[in-house]
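WARN retry 2 of 3 for item q-0093 after timeout on previous attempt; input resubmitted unchanged.
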Amino acid sequence: MRQILFSGVIGLFLTLVGTPLLIKLLARKGYGQFIRDDGPRDHHSKRGTPTMGGIAFITATLIAYFATKLASGTSPSVSGLLVLFLFAGMGLVGFLDDYIKIVKQRSLGLRAKAKMLGQFIVGVTFAILSLNFADSRELTPASTHLSFTQDFGWSIGPVLFVVWALFMILAMSNGVNLTDGLDGLATGASVMVFGAYVFIGVWQYGQSCANELTAGAGCYEVRDPLDLAVVAAALMGALFGFLWWNTSPAKIFMGDTGSLALGGALAGLAILSRTELLLAVLGGLFVLITMSVVIQVGSFRLTGKRVFKMAPLQHHFELKGWSEVLVVVRFWIIQGMCVIVGLGIFYGTWATS
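OK item q-0093 returned
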């Protein structure tokens, strides 16, 4: 359990100290944020704020994980490395998008096809690799079964699994990206979900089917649950430190570099911890904001009318007169409730089994 503490503390320290250095570097180079002209007027004051801040917590998370392994004398697990690969790979796609958007002065960043291709390559590679590397119990990091709090039903086969995993990765990446519209909103919400996955990983480790004392009807067939908790702790700590600089008034934005990376990490943790459908509850705020965009676009195309003043949902409430801080805090409360409900379902399912 010391690994969880070490990774969280190291990640926290690195972003607390490293983020202001990144802010100075990005400001010196003039890598500032573009602001939509049709958005809330208060946002125009943010134009020029350094972006691509995801670099800070991606780097901090990777260092925290490997430093923890070095300090504890343990080897990285395949599951941990796969989540970090997905995290960093999606972050790289987001970085290229931010770089072209800001440095090359092309407002749309990567072309849609190029961005989708990058996400596709990273997601499919992760999905295929996660069905390999069986351990002594013939347990691979991922399973071809769908899962809620554990695997259930029949196997959907490797091809459909890759499609399903890719859908989850794209959905969560775009969900976090849409949520990242107000200072600290996506960062704070992500901290809560990663905290939930620290708990889930520790609980699955304690109730593992590999443990003769806990093997039974309610045990968990997860390959590397404790190491997944170490990864989640590194992410949670790094985001806590980043939030110090990202909360209102933000000194730096995470950009697509950070939002795509976080969405990938969330999807990876859900897939490898066998809690795929539970992620929709744990990350309920991301789902809610994504659905607001779907509803807005669908309504406008079908009826020519908009349901919200502006989508994503957080901007609707801003245009209704809520202050940015009020929106963020209330949305954090919603996300906190989603995590509580999700963990309640997770524990309740185990208790009833």
